[in-house]
Amino acid sequence: MNEQSSPVLEISSLSAGYGRFDVVRDIGLSVGKGEAVALLGPNGAGKTTVLRAIMGLVKQRRGLIRIGDTDVSDLPTHRIARGLAAIAPEGRRLFLDQSVEDNLLLGALHLRHDRTRVERLLTSVYDLFPVLRNYRHRLSSFLSGGEQQMVAIGRMLMSDPEIMLLDEPSVALSPVAVDIVVKAMLELRKRGASLLLVEQRIDVATRVCDRLYVMAHGEIVEEMTPEIVRSGGMSILNKYLG
Ligand SMILES: Nc1ncnc2c1ncn2[C@@H]1O[C@H](COP(=O)(O)OP(=O)(O)OP(=O)(O)O)[C@@H](O)[C@H]1O
């Protein structure tokens, strides 16, 4: 993390899970303002659960989650989604029977009384993904997987959040679409966004992020930088990722 900036997201001693079971335990991590951080790990390690806990989507959670100056540990999802955190979830979760623009506007529901701001945000999404401007009135079901991922990222941007959470945005996409998504994340970084990216692809995580946390069996087991990965850390990552 950039030493000068105070973290935009700070998690300490987080345990969370479903039913009676904690699937993540004693998680501590931070994301600085303007920083991009990756959560890597094998299937079932608990990465998505950490993102869901930040959004308040996992009922059973203990520990501290702070976004900016706000303790969100006990806040309901609809409060967190009002500009504190937003997620581009695994599987995208679009309303496929709705147009591209209607899906985007769903991200800005809490801003609907500020039409100027909503228009500005829409413009910024269409500048990031120009193809969506052409498809704005098209049903989302007619889009390719890559285009649907753009809508999911765009919907996240529409809430103008302090921290953006992306859950495996590269999964099941063509190489060309992965490249577009990576370039979009790099552009978001240029715009000053703070990102927490769940990834299985080490190449995507190292291209986009300043730091990488590795999760296994519900715990954070390593923290490294892309430089460390490139200078020998790959063998450590392979131990966990297979
Ligand atoms: N809604 C749920 N109810 C019960 N258990 C769940 C639920 N969602 C996830 N789990 C379990 O929690 C554990 C962690 O899942 P999670 O989705 O957080 O892992 P992940 O690291 O994101 O993996 P993947 O890459 O496969 O998505 C898994 O054992 C999973 O089966």
UniProtKB/TrEMBL annotation:
Stretches assigned to the ABC transporter domain: 9-242
* Metal-binding recorded as keyword: no
InterPro entries from the entry? AAA+_ATPase, ABC_transporter-like_ATP-bd, ABC_transporter-like_CS, BCAA_Transport_ATP-bd_LivF, P-loop_NTPase
GO molecular function terms listed in the Swiss-Prot or TrEMBL record:
ATP binding
Q: Which UniProt keywords apply?
A: Amino-acid transport, ATP-binding, Nucleotide-binding, Transport
Protein family (similarity comment): Belongs to the ABC transporter superfamily.
Under what name is this protein listed?
ABC transporter ATP-binding protein
Originating species: Mesorhizobium qingshengii
